[in-house]
Amino acid sequence: LLKALGIPPEQLSPEGYLRQYDAVIERLYPSLRPMPGAVELVQRFAALGVRMAIATSSQRHAFDKKMAHQPELLGPMAVVVTGDDPDVARGKPAPDIFLEAARRLGADPAECVVFEDAPAGVRAGRDAGAFTVAIPDARFGCSGDFSLAHRVLWSLEEWLAELPSAP
């Protein structure tokens, strides 16, 4: 990127750019809001006794910083697998991260539902053998091919409306 922009390494090294980028992103974490319906969906699944996992391409240190501001999403998770986990050999679109999350849950991937907002994640979920739901995130544009998804929703609230009420 720096080379394409004509920025010489003595002006800004790749490492320096990444440090600056990370600092800017970290300042945004407190203001990030979950997708509409995400908190309610996680709460309903928890009330129904559904074991859940997060399988994210993010590195653990970045994930932990981001999720420190989202305890209502992280708390109910039985498993978290990040992109830099040593048990994940290949990143998305390879299915490795979802296969590892299912293994740690003690679940057959075919009995899992993957919610994904990116085409590479949809392919990974599908290739893992999970029922894969695409939720293109309008906040980031809805570009990409989501045709591999078993289902495409425009909001997690759509899925929530189809679930039984919590006991």
Q: Into which percentage range does the β-strand content fall?
A: 5-15%
Structural class: alpha/beta
Principal-axes shape call: globular
Tell me the number of helical segments per DSSP (H or I, 4 or more residues long). Answer: 7
Oligomer: single chain
Which segments are poorly predicted (pLDDT under 50) over 5 or more consecutive residues? none
Order of helices and strands: HHEHHEHEHEEH
Number of strands: 5
Q: First CA to last CA: what distance? A: 52 Å
Mean pLDDT, all residues: 91
Helix content estimate? 25-40%
Spatial strand order of the main sheet: 3-4-5
Largest β-sheet summary? 3 strands, parallel
Rg calc: 17 Å
Write up this protein.
The mean pLDDT is 91. This protein has helices at 14-28, 38-47, 60-67, 71-74, 96-105, 119-128, 156-162, and strands at 53-56, 79-82, 113-116, 131-134, 151-152. The chain has a three-stranded parallel β-sheet with strand order 3-4-5, covered by helices on one side. With 167 residues, the protein is α/β, with parallel strands linked by helices.
Features:
alpha/beta, 11% strand, 3-stranded parallel β-sheet, globular, 167 residues, 38% helix
